[in-house]
Amino acid sequence: MPLNQPIQKRYHSISEVAKMLDVNPSLLRFWEKQFKQIQPKTNARGKRAYRQEDIDVIRRIYDLVKVQGLTLEGARKALSARKGEAKERGAQAASAAQTANEAATPAVNPLEVANREAAVARLKKVRQRLLEARAVVRS
Q1: Please, are residues 49 and 57 in contact by the beta-carbon 8 Å criterion?
Q2: What's the sign of the alpha-carbon dihedral 39, 43, 47, 50?
Q3: Predicted structure pTM score
Q4: Whether the Cβ atoms of residue 49 and residue 40 lie closer than 8 Å to each other
Q5: What is the pLDDT of residues 93-130, one digit of tens each?
Q6: Is 99 contained in some domain?
Q7: What's the domain range around 134?
Q8: What sign does the CA torsion over 72, 73, 76, 78 have?
Q9: Distance between CA atoms of 24 and 8, rounded to whole angstroms?
Q10: Coil/strand/helix, residue 4
Q11: Is 93 among the domain residues?
Q12: In this structure, what are the phi and psi dihedrals at residue 42, rounded to the nearest 5 degrees?
């Protein structure tokens, strides 16, 4: 670790987080009960230790409730919608990766294509016979 950089804390106390946002610690405890996304570590005595992820969620909640004026329910929905958007982006990235993999696959052998087409034709004939047999059984 370079000597000229300040030490980054991993955990912050509730009073430090409250000072960062200029709110009362009681509001943070209340939000902790209202939003399941906030999960600070607690020691045996119940002292809370907030990670950077918790602080980021709290800042997002502060922005939604205090700045944008949403209700707590509206903030909950906005947070869950944001989580859903992340899932959608992940699904889109996965489908894009799959498309890229399919494009990168080598060309199919013409003999394989002919064999596949012959197999499909045989399966269609079998299906037609089964449908005819079913019609005979039902009548």
Answers
A1: no
A2: negative
A3: 0.56
A4: yes
A5: 666 666 665 655 556 677 787 888 899 999 999 999 99
A6: no
A7: 109-139
A8: negative
A9: 24
A10: coil
A11: no
A12: -130, 145
Cα 57 → chain centroid: 15
Q: Residues 80, 29: one domain? A: yes
Can you say whether residue 45 is alpha, beta or left, with left for phi > 0 and alpha for psi between -120 and 50 degrees?
Answer: alpha
What total number of domains does the chain contain? 2
Dihedral angle, C-alpha 35, 36, 40, 42, nearest 10 °? 110
What are the CA-CA distances from residue 137 to residues 123, 124, 126, 127 (Å)?
A: 21, 20, 16, 15
Are residues 20 and 81 both part of a single domain?
yes
- Pair 23, 64 in one domain: yes
Claim to verify: residue 17 and residue 75 sit in the same structural domain: yes
Give the model confidence (pLDDT) of 66-100 as tens digits: 889 989 998 888 888 876 555 555 566 666 666 66
What b/e sequence results for 65-97 when a residue is b if at least 16 CB atoms lie within 10 Å of its CB, and e otherwise? beeeebeeeebbebbeeeeeeeeeeeeeeeeee
Flag whether 24 is in a domain: yes
